[in-house]
Design a protein that fits this description.
It is built from five helices and two strands. It is mostly helical and 210 residues long. It has three domains: 59 residues; 32 residues, no CATH class; 84 residues. A hairpin with an 8-residue loop joins β1 and β2.
Length: 210
Amino acid sequence: MSPTYSRELKKLQHFNYDESANEKFRTTSRIFMAHPSNHRVRNGGFLRFLSILVGLILVVYVWRPSPSSSGRSHKPKKKFKALVSCPECSCDCPQSDSFTLPSGIFNVSSSGCTSEDPEMNEELKKDTITLLSEEISLQQNVTRDILDHALELTMDAKQMASFHRREAQKCYVRVDTCETARERAEAALLKESKLTLLWEERARNFGWRD
């Protein structure tokens, strides 16, 4: 076989291969163009599924508790437990040391663990009636203080009023005295005027001239 013939044969095979590839591409294009809605539906469903998945991931990321917040949230519980929990009493106290409120309203018995604190025992022995009595007595003391202060102010006002009343009476007496003195002075002046006229008349009778 000559080289020229072999080259021509290879060109012919390559041309046939290109023709078959082009034919397959055209067939695939026809199929895709004939059913475009199926591809769109599949693409739309995939995009919807992808958006839902992304939304769920965001929700879980936003609402999940962070380690710092979870650590902070557990700390108050520990503190609360530490405040509420009380160490066990190691004392061995007889039953006779416990006491009960005598009022009958509350029946609270205290163990010997609080017997070492007299203030606590005194507060526990108080019942509602005692507390109300103390509150009433306190209110009475406050009211009494207010009344005493008001009485003091009233007494001061009365003293000032009596003082001004006495001063006014003194003024009235002095005015009366002045008025009496004025009347006496007028009477004396009138008497002196009459005597002056009498002596003037006698002097003229004896030849006195101005």
